[in-house]
What we know:
The chain has a five-stranded mixed beta sheet, covered by helices on one side. It has two domains: 3-78, Ubiquitin-like (UB roll) (Roll); 87-155, Orthogonal Bundle (DNA polymerase, domain 1), CATH 1.10.150. The chain contains five helices and five strands, in the order E-E-H-E-E-E-H-H-H-H. The chain is globular and about 45 Å long. The termini are far apart. Helices cover 33% and strands 16% of the residues.
Amino acid sequence: MKTPISFVLNGTAVEALAAPHECLLDLLRGPLGHTGTKAGCGAGECGACTVLMDGVVVNACLVLAGEANGKRITTIEGLAEGESLHPIQQAFVETGGMQCGFCTPGMILSAKALLDENKKPGEEEIRKALEGNFCRCTGYTKIIASVQAAARKMRD
């Protein structure tokens, strides 16, 4: 039996029906159509499903959909404003912080949570903030450089 839930998704109030065992990832990717949130390991180890819940990084594969009730959820689709990319997204494009792009949404949302709290993080702080997000294509050098570039953009 599904239960009605309501929350704010990328700035818009939404209502949905969620089964007691349904994870937030399945609700986002399925009925809500937010496929930028990727399904990776299903065990909270890879970070592909990273979203922000009330500004805090969570693995959507580990969060029950019902836990989103009354919360603010931000997915990668919620960062851009119309045709204008968010400064973090723009920095990833300009700096080459992605290869295949599968991990990129999670990386960007983890970086956003960091930069919302720390406007000028050092490399170790960036690495710590991204440690739950795995990329199999890069050596993380350009990802770190992208977050540093985004921090500069957001301070200017």
